[in-house]
Amino acid sequence: MDATTTFSVETEAIWAPTQPLPLKNALRDLADRIGARWGIDDLNQQVRVVYNPRLTTTLGRAILNRGVVELNPRLLAEHPSELIPTLVHELAHIVVHMRFGRVAPHGHHFKMMMGMQNLSARSTHSLPVAHLRRKRKKYLYLHTCSECGYRFVARSFRRSYYCASCGPDMKWDVYRTSNTAAGQKLIKRLCKAK
């Protein structure tokens, strides 16, 4: 039995990809097993592992200064075999930060830690994520000076701008419309109606 298979058997005693995603206690046990392979006892006492449902296309992330690993529950539920490699990857970032301070995120130290777990140090995945991306609505903002009628269009509301001829005490009348062909047509019509 090689080292990778041994590690698989060790982690499957706690959780297997055929099971639902592990809960908090199982995540702690997994962190301890991973830490033990790096010579760290009770890694779960130094690092907190949580699920973050706000993550969309990334499998996980490490927040170094806080010692927190966040995992994407939706993407990992779709691809449970990625849980252990992702957890190891993010824990390696935190352990490298704890041991060596600020170093290259996927540099020599990180690769060494991943090698100790017999896992790839790759930093990206090629899983299908298009269905998880949120479509953001984009808007156009027509700013009109309430005193002199000066107008300009921007892609965000500009609070700190002021009309050069009226000064900083002036007020903007702001009209927001979606950044579509119809919205752009409406902005042009409003700009012409002066």
Characterize this entry briefly.
With 194 residues, the chain is α+β, with helices and mostly antiparallel strands. Helices cover 38% and strands 15% of the residues.
Topology:
Layout (H helix, E strand, L loop, with lengths): L2 H10 L11 H14 L5 H4 L1 E4 L8 E4 L4 E4 L1 H6 L4 H18 L7 H9 L22 E7 L5 E4 L17 E7 L2 H12 L2
Parallel strand pairs: 1-3
Antiparallel strand pairs: 2-3, 4-5, 4-6
The number of helical elements comes to 7
Shape, principal axes of CA atoms: elongated
Helix content: 25-40%
Order of helices and strands: HHHEEEHHHEEEH
Instruction: Order the strands across the largest sheet as they lie in space.
Output: 1-3-2
From the alpha carbons, calculate the radius of gyration and give it in angstroms.
25 Å
Briefly, what CATH class of the largest domain? Alpha Beta
Unreliable sequence segments: none
Q: What percent strand?
A: 15-25%
Biggest beta sheet summary = 3 strands, mixed
So, CATH architecture of the largest domain? 2-Layer Sandwich
CATH fold-level assignment of the largest domain: Zincin-like
Question: Can you tell me the CATH superfamily of the largest domain?
Answer: Metalloproteases ("zincins"), catalytic domain
User: What is the distance, rounded to the nearest whole angstrom, between the alpha carbons of the first and last residues?
Assistant: 80 Å
Strand tally is 6
The class by helix and strand makeup works out as alpha+beta
Total domain count: 2
Look at the structure and give the mean pLDDT. 86
As an assembly, this protein is single chain
